[in-house]
Write a structure and sequence with these properties.
Helix content of chain B: 25-40%
Shape of chain A: globular
Strand content of chain B: 5-15%
Helix content of chain A: 25-40%
Distance between the termini of chain A: 57 Å
Oligomer: heterodimer
Structural class of chain A: alpha/beta
Order of helices and strands of chain B: EEHEEEEEHHHHHHHH
Bound molecules: flavin-adenine dinucleotide, iron/sulfur cluster, FE2/S2 (inorganic) cluster
């Protein structure tokens, strides 16, 4: 039995995993990263539009600060977020951008003086301040009050992961590429690492560690139409849930992005709309102002996606042989802007559609985009149920996105969470009491169990076809567990997914080729994907309200009285076909921003009984500290103690000099 | 939109070889597939694997031309398979793995391992002085035009197409390739990196670096990100010659 030892085992080499590993390593602990692919090819690479951080450098971002970012994020989450975590996040985000700037990210920078921009379909001239010259620039994004999204043209994720992955190389952090974690080694109370399959040789080995972090990104591939990379299959989510102890939070919260190109589902960035692009229908009519007069194209993603589907249902979609779509018009931005700031968009349109977006409109339709749900952790990034297990990035439910993530808040979360959880893990490893005494028999037991599961596919006499089952699952999810959900559809989906799960236990392989064996990979992953799919559908069928991206046509109102709570799902027994659900209430009495109207979308919701009282308290505190936003914030929701010491403290801005 | 297809029969001639299989020999295998509207090689290969041959190995991640996973020889030329649309090709399509890199199986090669080695050799990260920046303070300003120039060179996706087209890379195992030279140019441009020309000379001033390059510029022609490799290599070579002399 091959065993590899390390202090910190990081499963996932995207932005979150890399940044977390760097933090732990710089605190003196050995960190080792596992990744399905070379780290720089992780899905983080695909982020185009940018990263939110309230720097307030550009004129349209003037007056931005942590408080505004906090409010936007909590409203965006439709009050599903953990407000402590949002506070930690908004305070650290500017520090993260500045760290990345020092690490070499070629952020787009502010040019002083006049420039022409498109706002609300009109050409407007704005004048950047002299003192902002050369500082990191910001663009507009959906659901934000200020221009807050820092960017490197439209290759933000690419530039970020280049810099962070190179820092990891500089710090001599090994990345074991083409390795897949198949199971967490644990004894029901503590996690000891993972069983890992080499995707080149097919060999299994055990990685044993004091601390294990799941940073495996999203699970979008349980859907047919998704903007996610083909490796975003949610395997980190699944292996955490398969412990039977660690819980997944809010899996029913799935985000759909308004502008997947049609029909391929490849994303064109929200920066298109942020920079002034418009959504149009079959008549060339700009329809978003009809639905959302306040924010128009720049309402939050859940709202825009629903409005688009609604508009298509009204017969205003553009018909094509693949179905109906709408148009994204960026022609008004002009050739120069598109060739510099929206180059990837140009490339994508050119190569995949044969469309020149300088002259023609882009066919778009909402596509699955982001997994808000994930491995449930506390505010420091640790699983409350399984000791030694941590999580960060899209794979986690840390929970700063609640039921809807704002554009630009995700890559920001990956590095911020990496910075914070890297410290948590280092503290954990510093503590002698947490040194694992490795139970070799347990490691062996897990390794043999995983090996037996793989052998069963080739020798078990099964006859079901893995890719057929996968296809059926993806279609079910897209048609029944999509943007608009109803009880009947969801129940049907749960029922059919359970049947598929049972069938998947009889998968047999046509090919027994040694080494990588892609068919075997599909086979063992699809079983796990089905558990996630059924968890999403089941959670959605039980949640009889609409919140953020989870929209129930039969329960269109947000219902704080009954549903201001987080769904927790665990998978108790290997032969189960449904997860066990439990709920964790959000405490209105501690909220800095009690639930209310989001500022866009439906105005109609059912209040929590504690809301009016908390609202009064909050107003009183606000009035008492009206002249000092920091004192006010500290009185409303003290959070700094949760941050590692190095990340505490105010952020300097042009308008808030130290 | 791609509505013009009249369902051609495509014939894929794929170089097959599984090094993990004892006794396996490299051979060309042909598959037939009906073309679909808007079909890319990503769609085609996925369908081939699902329907005809579950053992076929290849790599895709983003399927959007962004991650650099899917470099392969398409009709003899290194390109990204995910953004190659079948309607731009003849009905007979030949696919082979990128040369130079270690073969994993069929169309899959280990570019990641090569790139990590190159990064370690050339130290492809910003070398800053030890003193830590105070992250609470306003970031250092940078000329916007310079930031754009750096971004331009930073767009490399490490796909390996340039390396696969390069005669020198085939002959010299340790040649850093156009990808490596471009990275040096990128860090040389970056004022945050405190290395001097003499430091860079140490890294690339030999036959495994700028002096190994024969300037035939196949790399420039195949780079799917249209990086200005030609200009960068020429510039670097001139610079390194003078640095070497002084
Ligand atoms: C097209 C697109 C554009 C986006 N644009 C933006 C944007 O502009 N702004 C923004 O804020 N967000 C954006 N997002 C979201 C954002 O990119 C992601 O949420 C974020 O990058 C996720 O980072 P991560 O580190 O959590 O995971 P990832 O980058 O997905 O990395 C996951 C890692 O886990 C590894 N892995 C997975 N499973 C296993 C396993 N079983 N064993 C070993 N390794 C494993 C993978 O190899 C990979 O290295 C975008 C997303 C998409 C789809
Ligand atoms: S320089 Fe171009 S061809 Fe070479 S690895 Fe980078 S992107 Fe690919
Ligand atoms: S110009 Fe140099 S690096 Fe480029 S292909 Fe020719 S020898 Fe290789
Ligand atoms: S799959 Fe990412 S570039 Fe082709």
């Amino acid at each position: 039995m091959k065993i590899i030892h390390t202090d910190v085992l990081v499963i996932g080499g995207g932005l979150a995993g890399l940044r977390l590993a760097i933090g732990a390593k710089r605190r003196g602990h050995d960190a080792l990263i596992l990744s399905l692919v070379p780290a720089k090819r992780s899905h983080s690479k695909a982020a185009q539009g940018g990263m939110q951080a309230s720097l307030g450098n550009v004129v349209k971002g003037q007056g931005d600060n942590e408080d505004v970012h906090f409010e936007d994020t909590v409203r965006g989450s439709d009050w599903g977020a953990d407000q402590d975590v949002v506070r930690m996040f908004v305070n650290t985000a500017p520090k993260a951008v500045r760290e990345l700037a020092a690490w070499g990210v070629p952020w787009s920078r502010v040019r002083k003086g006049d420039r022409e921009v498109i706002i609300n379909g009109q050409k407007v001239t704005i004048t950047e301040r002299d003192e902002a010259q050369g500082l990191v620039a910001q663009r507009d994004f959906g659901g934000t009050k200020k221009w807050r999204t820092c960017y490197a043209a439209d290759g933000t994720g690419h530039a970020m992961i280049n810099a962070v992955a190179d820092q990891a190389i500089a710090d001599s952090i090994p990345v074991h590429e083409r390795k897949e974690a198949l199971a967490l080694i644990h004894d029901g109370g503590r996690c000891y690492g993972a069983i890992v399959r080499d995707l080149i040789t097919g060999e299994l080995s055990a990685y044993v560690a004091s601390a294990t972090a799941i940073c495996t990104g999203g699970a979008g591939r349980v859907y047919r139409t998704t903007t996610n990379a083909v490796i975003c299959e949610g395997m980190g989510h699944a292996i955490a849930m398969e412990t039977g102890v660690a819980a997944l939070g809010n899996m029913e919260a799935v985000q759909f992005h308004p502008t997947g190109i049609f029909p391929a589902g490849i994303l064109v960035t929200e920066g298109c709309r942020g920079d002034g692009g418009l959504l149009k229908d079959v008549d060339g009519h700009r329809f978003m102002p009809d639905y959302e007069p306040e924010k128009k194209e720049l309402a939050s993603r859940d709202v825009v996606s629903r409005r688009m589907e609604e508009h298509i249902k009204k017969g205003k979609g553009v018909k094509s042989r693949f179905g109906e779509h709408l148009w994204l018009d960026i022609t008004l931005l002009g050739e120069k802007h598109i060739h510099t700031n929206l180059r990837e968009v140009w490339d994508i349109c050119h190569y995949f559609l044969g469309v020149d977006p300088v002259k023609e409109m882009i066919p778009v339709k909402p596509a699955q985009h982001y997994t808000m749900g994930g491995v449930r952790t506390d505010a420091t990034g640790q699983s409350p149920a399984l000791k030694g297990l941590f999580s960060a990035g899209e794979a986690s439910c840390w929970d700063m996105h609640g039921f809807n993530r704002l554009g630009g808040n995700s890559v920001a979360e990956t590095v911020v969470a990496g910075m914070i959880v890297g410290e948590t893990i280092a503290n954990y490893c510093d503590d002698r009491a947490n040194e694992p005494s490795i139970p070799t028999a347990l490691v062996r037991e897990f390794l043999e169990r995983e090996q037996a599961k793989l052998t069963a596919f080739t020798k078990g006499g099964g006859t079901e076809d893995a890719s057929l089952i996968k296809g059926e699952m993806q279609d079910l999810m897209t048609t029944k567990v999509g943007i608009f959900r109803t009880g009947a559809d969801l129940e049907e989906a749960v029922d059919k997914l359970q049947k598929l799960l049972v069938r998947s236990r009889r998968i047999g392989l046509r090919s027994s080729s040694p080494g990588a064996n892609p068919e075997l990979v599909t086979a063992y992953r699809v079983q796990r994907m089905l558990k996630l799919a059924v968890t999403i559908a089941y959670g959605a069928s039980v949640r009889t309200e609409s919140r953020g991206a989870h929209f129930r046509s039969d329960y269109p109102r947000r219902n704080d009285a009954e549903w201001l709570k987080r769904t927790l799902a665990t998978w108790k027994g290997e032969s189960d076909t449904l997860p066990t659900l439990a709920y964790e209430a959000l405490d209105v009495k501690r909220m800095e921003l009690p639930p209310g109207w989001r500022g866009y979308g439906a105005k109609d919701y059912i209040d929590h009984p504690d809301t009016p009282e908390r609202q009064k308290e909050v107003e009183a505190i606000r009035a008492r500290h009206a002249d000092d936003r920091f004192a006010m914030q500290a009185a409303l929701l003290p959070y700094e103690h949760l941050l590692p010491p190095g990340l505490r403290g105010r952020n300097e801005r042009i308008d808030e000099r130290f | 939109m791609a509505e013009t297809n009249n369902h051609r029969k495509l014939r894929f001639h794929i170089l097959r070889y599984n090094p993990a299989q004892p006794g396996d020999e490299p051979r060309i295998q042909t598959y037939e597939l009906e073309e679909a509207p808007g079909m890319t090689l990503f769609i085609a290969l996925t369908e081939l694997r699902e329907k005809l041959d579950p053992s076929l190995q290849f790599d895709f991640v983003c399927r959007a031309g962004i991650c650099g996973s899917c470099g392969m020889m398409i009709n003899g030329r290194p390109s990204l398979a995910c953004r190659t649309v079948t309607k731009d090709l003849e009905a007979d399509i030949s696919l082979a793995p990128l040369p130079v890199f270690e073969l994993i199986g069929d169309l899959s090669v280990n570019t990641g391992k090569w790139m990590r080695g190159m990064s370690e050799t050339l130290e492809t990260w910003v070398h800053m002085p030890e003193t830590q920046r105070d992250l609470k303070r306003i970031e250092e300003a940078m000329d916007p035009a310079l930031a754009e120039e750096i971004y331009e060179l930073d767009r490399c996706i490490e796909c390996g197409c340039c390396v696969s087209s390069c005669g020198t890379a085939r002959m010299r195992e340790d040649f850093v390739g156009a990808v490596g030279l471009n990275k040096i140019a990128r860090f040389r441009l970056d004022p945050r990196d405190k290395r001097t020309d003499a430091d860079f000379y140490e890294l690339v001033g030999d036959d495994n670096g700028v002096f190994g390059c024969m300037s035939l510029l196949a790399c420039h022609d195949v780079c799917p990100k249209n990086l200005p490799l030609q200009t960068q290599i020429a510039f670097l070579r001139r610079k390194m010659v003078t640095t070497g002399i002084s």
